[in-house]
Design goal:
The protein is α+β, with helices and mostly antiparallel strands. Helices cover about 25% and strands about 30% of the residues. The chain has six helices and nine strands, in the order βαββααβββαααβββ. The strands form two sheets. Strands 1-2-3-4-5-6 form a six-stranded mixed β-sheet, with helices on one face. It has a three-stranded antiparallel β-sheet with strand order 7-8-9. Helix 2 runs parallel beside helix 3. The radius of gyration is 22 Å and the shape is flat.
Length: about 270
Amino acid sequence: MQTNCDIYMKKTALYSLTLAGVVSAACSGTYTPEQLTFDSIKVEKRVPLTQDANSPAYEMNINVKYVREGSDDVRKSVNDAITAKIFNLHYVDISAAVDSFVNGNATSYKNDMLPLYNEDKRDIDKRPIYEYAADIRTRIEDGKEGVVTYFIDMYNFEGGAHGLSQLLTLNFDKTTGKTITLEDVLVPGYKVKLNALLQKALMRKADCKDINELHDKGYLFSMEMYPSSNYVLGRDGITFIYNPYEIAPYALGRIELTVSYNDMADLLKKE
C-alpha cells in the first residue's frame, strides 16, 4: 500500500532538440542519434511531521528535465551541469541527485523541526512555522542559433515571513552539450562596459534618471551593477536575471534586464 510519504516518480519524453551535423543512420548503416531527447523526473512527496491527522508537513514537488538520449559526452555534459546548478552535486546520476535532495530534506525536516513542534503544537498561531514547501520546475527554450536555454524555477518556503522564488538558467551548445559562459561569448575585459549597459537598462526599467534615483527606489543600494550569473542567450540579445535581494529588496521582485547584441557589438567575440 502506498502512503502519503511515498515518492511518485515518472519519466516521460517531453522535448527533443535537433542536433546539427548528424549523419543519417540510413547512410552509415549504424545508429547515429539525430536528436538530443529530454525526459523528466517527476517527484511528489508529502512528509507529515507527526502521525496526527492535522500534522504540518513538508510538500515537495519536483519536475526536472534531463537528457535521456544523445552521445555520451553530450549527455554527461548537460546532465552534470543540471545536477550541479540545482542540487550542487557534481558527477552524480540525476536520479540519484533527486533522491538525495528529497530524502535529505525529509530527514532534516523531521530531525530539526519535530522537537520544536512538540513544544509548540498546542499553539495554533505557530503552526505556519512548521509548514515547509519546495517546488522545482524546469523548462527548455531555443535561444540564439545553436543554443538551448534551460530554465529552473525554484520556490522554497521554510516557515518564514514568505517563501523565496528564484529563476536560474543554463545555456547549452546544442552540438557539444557544453555550458556556454559569458567568457565564451564576450571579449576579455567586457565587464566595465557591460555593467554600464546594464545600469542604463535598469534605469529605463525603473524610470530613473541616475544612480541616485535608483538608490532612492531601493535598487543597487549597497552594491555596484554586475552581470548576473543567470542569463539567457536570446536571439536578439542577452537577458540577465536578478532574483529577489540580488540588486533590490524582495518587494521589487525579480528583475530582468536585456542588452541587445547591437548595443554590445564591440563586446562580442567574432565567430
